[in-house]
Write a structure and sequence with these properties.
- This is Acyl-CoA thioester hydrolase.
- Keywords: Hydrolase.
- The chain is 21% helix and 35% strand.
- The protein is of the alpha+beta class.
- The chain has one domain: Hotdog Thioesterase (Thiol Ester Dehydrase, Chain A), CATH 3.10.129.
- The strands form two sheets. Strands 1-4-5-6-3 form a five-stranded antiparallel sheet, with helices on one face. A two-stranded antiparallel sheet has the order 2-7.
- The longest helix has 16 residues.
Length: 136
């Protein structure tokens, strides 16, 4: 299983008047971790496009467990869970100092052929190549 993690210092512009991160900014944190994960196997959005596929997010689930606060450090771990027919990535956000779980999430992306604009029902061979796996 492939994972990547990032540390984010919660910036002032991401919090509300109570110094708590606004819920919508968690999506941005997931994106930063997702990009780090994709880079780890050399298939970030630039590589995806160059390979002839775009991978839009078609589903996102987020469960807020605790609150991230201004000036705290948070760790975001992105883990690739599925890749045969889609990219399913699970996320865990924790407070670095306490280790407390703050958020759990998942995203699903599907491959779209950029020429035909059709959704692929199986992940393209290039993804398996990038992951160093043979196609089932």
């Amino acid at each position: 299983m492939r994972s990547a993690e990032i540390i984010i210092d919660v910036p002032f512009f991401d919090v509300d008047a109570m110094q708590v991160v606004w819920h919508g900014h968690y999506v941005k944190y997931l994106e930063v971790a997702r990009c780090e994960l994709l880079r780890s196997f050399n298939y970030d959005y630039t590589e995806m496009s160059a390979s002839g596929y775009m991978w839009p997010i078609v589903d996102m689930q987020i469960k807020y467990v605790g609150s991230a606060l201004f000036a705290h450090k948070i760790k975001v771990i992105a883990t690739l869970k599925e890749w045969q027919n889609r990219l399913k990535i699970d996320y865990l956000i924790t407070d670095v100092a306490s280790g407390k779980k703050l958020t759990k999430a998942s995203t699903i992306q599907v491959a779209i052929d950029m020429n035909s604009k059709e959704m692929c029902y199986e992940s393209p061979a290039v993804l398996f190549d990038k992951l160093g796996l043979s196609r089932p």
